[in-house]
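Late entry, evening session. Most of the bench is empty. Finally got around to the prediction I had been postponing all week. Sequence below, unchanged from the version circulated by S.P.
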Amino acid sequence: MLEEQKSENIVWTPSKIIHRLGLEIDNKESIYYWAAKNNIPVFSPAITDGSLGDMFFFHSFKKEGLVIDILGDLRHLNLMAMRSVNTGMIILGGGLIKHHICNANLMRNGADFSLFVNTSSEFDGSDSGARPDEAISWGKIRKDATPVKIYGETTLIFPLLVAETFARDYHNIKD
């Protein structure tokens, strides 16, 4: 990546890095593989928080100079929201990711649809625990929307939701 940055003047954003990893991983069981194959951007504003960030850090001692443009992805995400006729948010968990998705929708006067699934409650003032009505008050969800928050563990709740909605319709169409 560093060599490509230098020789081809590539500006690496987190979504470009994830796209590249999805292509390189060549594993059909990976969501990043399918996102890359279908040119669906995957945004990660906290790409350096974890093992990948550690690898970037260690590599920087060997060869300095890799630049990761986080603002490029913020612009991309916000412009996607602003140019969309309708937007919806399915947010599993919370924190930084929830904040970025909701803020992108703020740029277009709110999401039309939203579902929050997490175990957080609002008592501590965290963004993760914030209910949809707070997002409405900020303009992150439209006032005429019918947002839903499910208090529960996402790896249990989300597969059940998919099975009862999208998957049910898919199997009914096939039969």
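Two things to note before I forget:
The longest helix spans residues 70-83.
The radius of gyration is 18 Å.
Will write this up properly tomorrow.
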